[in-house]
Every structure is written in structure tokens, then in C-alpha cells.
From TrEMBL:
InterPro entries: XkdX (IPR010022). It comes from Shouchella clausii (strain KSM-K16). Pfam families: Phage_XkdX (PF09693). This is XkdX family protein.
Length: 59
């Protein structure tokens, strides 16, 4: 990842938490809804497109 890319302040923390299974996809979606994470960052973290309205509680 290039240092030129501006990420949300919580991006690295949430990415690390997701990788350790400390954070679920539904929780990441909530961070997007709260504008603490962008949809693009959600996709980087999960490897899946951001979609609203899903009830998936498993990582």
C-alpha cells in the first residue's frame, strides 16, 4: 500500500481486527454506515464488494 493513499483513521485497526477474527463483516458494514470506513476500504479488508442490508454475522 502506498503512503500517498489517504485512509480512514480506523482503517488499519479494523483491518487488523478483521484478520484476527475480532471483527465481523456486519460490524465493518456498520462502520461504513457511520462513515468511519469507506465502502472501498470495506472491500479491501474483506475482499468482497460492499453491499447494504445483509444479515451475515460470520466472518
Amino acid at each position: 500500500m502506498s503512503d500517498d493513499i489517504k485512509r480512514s483513521p480506523r482503517f488499519e485497526d479494523l483491518k487488523r481486527r478483521y484478520e484476527k477474527n475480532w471483527c465481523r463483516k456486519d460490524q465493518l458494514r456498520r462502520f461504513v454506515e457511520l462513515e468511519a470506513l469507506t465502502p472501498e476500504e470495506y472491500e479491501i479488508i474483506t475482499g468482497e464488494p460492499f453491499e447494504t442490508g445483509e444479515d451475515d454475522e460470520t466472518a
